[in-house]
Specification:
The protein is of the alpha+beta class. It has nine helices and 19 strands. It has a six-stranded antiparallel beta sheet.
Length: about 450
């Protein structure tokens, strides 16, 4: 068994687990290297580079399963890993839904998704990008201080092998740059805002100067923010916060939550949950996608699918366990870490763009609220109740007007989804994405 060949190492580990008494087993390996840089007020604050690797082994004896992990790849450590896993599996309660994929379910090919940048950034290059971003932000008139610029990059090799015959590997990378600054002063009031860029390939980053200048402009625009009176008005979500609504949908259609009965959409499969024309897509095969993957965490092929079509909820996000529990087939949505068993989740999930521009979306609103930032975690996944602290801008006569802060937006996601209207400005920036969206009839709690 060669320690330099991940698939050979994992296949050998699975074989040892079978010989030790496991009926079935799978193993995952993640080797990663990362770079992290912090820059503030023209000075280097942090420069870190790290390398690491972990192996996770899952064994099944009947319907009993156990999971163990280790960063030690010595023969002695791997022997102990197998021994611990098998001993644990003999003692844990049975899980009637546990089990590996059948051989006919497995991915037969690994598509090239172009999700790994072969070039590692030089530390000096990263520092230079951060310097340029912060300098551009601090040069914006009205900016008075900086919380700094942050840069990160990582590349990981993921390998997976199982006793059902699956053995595949792929590599993935990503990087991000952000800058956060403050505008105003203590006497007249201060406001903070930020901007960032992220991509699989560093060559796809937005220019550092553009990121910095936008962060500065955003901070200055928020000066003089006020509260508004409590009211019911249309609320418009900027794309950097509208994606949170898609994240809430992802949680509600997660097969594990549905199987537990802890989702506010648990009884809505095949029913309209959005207005006609709305489409939400999960696409793990998107080239250079931040959450793309050629196969899922159980070796099933990845596939693009519409989870919402013409407003109707078409599917849950399912791994094998939740699919068996619900009497359905897996959607190839399993994620996997080295220290935990597979669980379902979204990949590149996005709300498709609508036919109207942002100006048209806002243009007929006499009074409303344009949200650019949300605070807190006031979303109840069981009931759909929604209450978040918010900041942004008041809409007056169809135009963006003065800044607003220290208010709360409230509603229920079931009604919010049905009242949602998307604009045409969808861009893929975060991994979970949405265009600007409008929701009428929400409550704004202010003074």
């Amino acid at each position: 068994m060669s320690a330099s060949d991940p698939l050979e190492l994992l296949s050998g580990l699975v074989g040892r687990a079978r010989r030790a008494g496991a009926d079935a087993a799978d193993a995952v390996l993640v080797d990663s290297v990362s770079l992290s840089v912090g820059w503030r007020l023209g000075q280097l604050e942090r420069l870190e580079r790290s390398e690491g690797g972990d192996i996770g082994l899952r064994v099944l004896i009947g319907r009993r399963q156990a999971m163990v992990s280790s960063s030690d790849r010595s023969q002695t450590a791997l022997d102990e890993l197998v021994e611990r896993a098998v001993a644990m599996a003999r003692r844990v309660p049975e899980d009637p839904y546990a089990g590996l994929a059948e051989p006919e379910q497995l991915a037969r090919a690994v598509p090239d998704l172009d999700i790994c940048d072969p070039a590692e950034p030089d530390a000096e290059d990263m520092i230079g990008r951060l310097r340029r971003a912060e300098d551009a932000a601090r040069a914006v008139t009205g900016v008075t201080n900086s919380e700094g610029a942050e840069g990160s990059w990582s590349r990981s090799q993921v390998a997976f092998a199982a006793s059902n015959g699956f053995a595949q590997a792929y590599s993935v990378s990503s990087g991000a740059l952000s800058v956060s600054v403050l505008a105003g002063d203590a006497a007249s009031g201060m406001e903070r805002d930020y901007d960032y860029t992220s991509a699989v390939f560093l060559s796809d980053w937005r220019a550092p100067e553009e990121v910095g200048e936008e962060a500065g402009r955003r901070a200055v625009r928020r000066l003089g923010a006020r509260k508004v009176r409590t009211c019911k008005v249309p609320v418009v979500y900027d794309p950097r916060v509208s994606r949170g609504l898609v994240s809430s949908l992802a949680g509600a259609i997660n097969g594990a939550a549905v199987a537990r009965g802890t989702s506010f959409l648990k009884d809505r499969l095949g029913q309209a949950v959005f207005s006609p024309g709305i489409r939400v897509v999960d696409d793990p095969l998107r080239r250079r996608g931040l959450r793309s993957r050629p196969f899922d965490g159980e070796g099933l092929p990845s596939r693009k699918m519409a989870v919402v079509e013409d407003g109707v909820l078409k599917t849950w996000l399912l791994d094998l366990r939740s699919a068996r529990q619900l009497g359905l087939a897996s959607t190839g949505s399993a994620g996997r870490g080295t220290g935990s068993p597979p669980s379902p989740g979204a990949s590149n999930l996005y709300l498709e763009a609508g036919p109207v521009t942002v100006a048209e979306l806002i243009g007929d609103i006499p009074s409303g609220f344009y949200v650019t930032e949300l605070f807190g975690h006031g979303v109840n996944g069981v009931t759909g109740d929604y209450s978040r602290g918010a900041a942004g801008f008041w809409i007056e006569g169809g135009e963006i007007a003065e800044p607003v802060s220290e208010v709360t937006v409230a509603g229920n996601l079931k009604e919010m989804f049905r009242a949602l209207t998307p604009a045409s400005d969808l861009t893929f920036r975060y991994g979970i994405d949405a265009p600007t969206v409008r929701i009428d009839g929400m409550t704004i709690a202010g003074r």
